[in-house]
Amino acid sequence: MLALVLVAGGCGRCGFQPDPGVKVVVPAMPTTLDWSYSDPTSWANYPVMLASQRGLTTLAPDHSVQPGLAERWERSRTAHGHEVYTFHLRRDVRWSDGVTPLSAQDFVLGWHRALQGRERGELADLLGAEEVLSLQDQGAPAERLQAALARVGIEAIDPHTLRVTLARPRSYFLARLANVYLFFPVPSAALAGRSEEAVRDYFDRPREGHPLALGPYRVESWDRAGERVRLVHNPHSIFQPPLGPGERPAPVLTLLKSEIGPALYERGRVDFVFVDSAVALQGRHPEDLQHEPLLSTYFLVFNTERPPLDRPEVRRAISRAIDREALMKGLLPAARPSHVLLPPELPGAATPQEAARLPHFEPERARAELSGVPGVDRPLRLVFRAGDSFVPEAAIAERLAAQLAAVGLQVTLDSRSDFSAEVARRTPEGPRAYDLYLRRLGADYAHPNTFFTLFERTGLHQSGWETQRGGEPMSRFEALLDEADAEPDEARARALYGQAQAVLLDEMAVIAPLYHPDRYFRTRASLRGVDVDPFNFLSLRELRLGTPAEVR
Predict the structure, then answer these.
(1) What does each C-alpha distance from 276 to 25, 389, 391, 518 come to in angstroms?
(2) Alpha-carbon span 439 to 427, nearest angstrom
(3) Which of 110, 243, 265, 440 could pair with 273 in a Cys bridge, judged by C-beta atoms 3.0 to 4.6 Å apart?
(4) What distance lies between CA 514 and its chain's CA centroid?
(5) End-to-end CA distance of the chain, in Å?
(6) Range 243-252 average pLDDT
């Protein structure tokens, strides 16, 4: 009743305000508008950053790297093994004031600032970045830090030429430039001479057309208390949405956070809303329901340090006991069951032949491998996140328990609101306390590397597999990744990533992939081009309005 009253009132805490233009409900408000100085909750910032800014590269629908702010580039290596990119910037790009041209110095300043921000490790591949990061960790004087920044491998050769030097070759670098907003340029001319406090104010308090933008939208206002960000069309952007007959850009766009977004949508108060309830996706579906296949994988993690799961053959048998098709049947309008880590749409994904060699549904083989293994009669505790989401976690957990019971394994389910703390918790004996847990991994950029970093020694996989066999398998896994990351030949790199995937999923069976999730949403017929991108971010770059008769 309270929700209906709030909707009827159309104001206050529900987040709706009678403003003109398109209204989009988002799961969270930005934590910052300063794209060079982000934080660990950066996912909440992406819808605004991707609508208002651009990177040196962009991604085509097939996820191949294409020119963005750079019209072309050359790639070379030095005698010391460093990789050098020379980017030639487009000369027709202006910031949203319509006057200030894009400059190579905009990248130099932006990346220097990002190296001092709260996610500075994202730029660790740059030559000299490790020295800057080390000095900051030591609390070195500002003079030493500035001198180290000047030595970092980012240089404006002239206003239209940018030279970037990496400490070592990295095949994923160009893909990261397209989407990771820490690599976006800043309007250096507007920031020149400002104090650190004034720069913070520039981004924190949008006004008078600032902060400047390069994308089809710029931020006009940010209402923190009302949890709204108002975007307006940037007519000076060269990255305009493709207009069809009768279509036009949306002049005003408001992003808002609301706990009753679906109800607001039903009442016609907002124009776009995510469907983040797996329960709501069952049964009859509204005609305007849409979905986007994500570059993402949902999987089962094994506690490799705790018997009987400390034996790879047991973990492989469990993976073979899972019928992924049956696991997902009827839970979602569409589902992509899978036993591989890399989604098939990702460049460099496993070939059908490689996938066939990885553990997949073979129940009789699973029973035989589990027969007589000591400790398999102990109940295994499966931990998963409490609460509703677009991933039907509770239903998947229940079906997993039933499928594993069919091969003689007893599983108890533990739904946790403190999920992250629980999977990290250790027993008095040392190993982590869980036996199995469920997790989703999403790509940050369109490259295999982004799916593997979680499972490296410094990754937050919480599986304990770095301790197995004295750490040799993980060292070999990391060596394969390092070689693949440095390999210029795409076919050779793909083969190396395939070998790394085989170590993770087959030889050591650290995880058992289950399916590749999709993201569901509803949008008005009058909106064209609004979407969710494969990285699970709201995509507004091609948003436009239909004919006037279709728009309320």
Answers:
(1) 12, 5, 8, 11
(2) 21
(3) 265
(4) 19
(5) 27
(6) 93
Q: Is the pLDDT of residue 15 over 80?
A: no
pTM of the model as a whole: 0.91
Of 495, 516, 482, 534, nearest in space to 170 by CA: 482
340 with 355: CB under 8 angstroms? yes
User: The tokens of 41 are what?
Assistant: 């909750």
The amino acid present at 465, given as its one-letter code, is W
Tokens of 518: 């999709």
Residue 197 buriedness (CB in 10 A; 0-12 / 13-18 / 19+): exposed
Question: CA distances (Å), 359 to each of 29, 87, 148, 311, 543, in order?
Answer: 41, 43, 48, 15, 42
Residue 19 is predicted with a pLDDT of: 66
**CA angle (290 as vertex; 285, 293 as ends), nearest 5:** 120
CA angle 182, 49, 132 (to 5 degrees): 15
Do residues 178 and 53 touch, judged by C-beta distance below 8 A?
A: no
Burial class (CB in 10 A: 0-12, 13-18, 19+), 107: buried
- Residues 212/187, Cβ–Cβ less than 8 Å: yes
Alpha carbons 291 and 542: distance in angstroms, whole number: 17
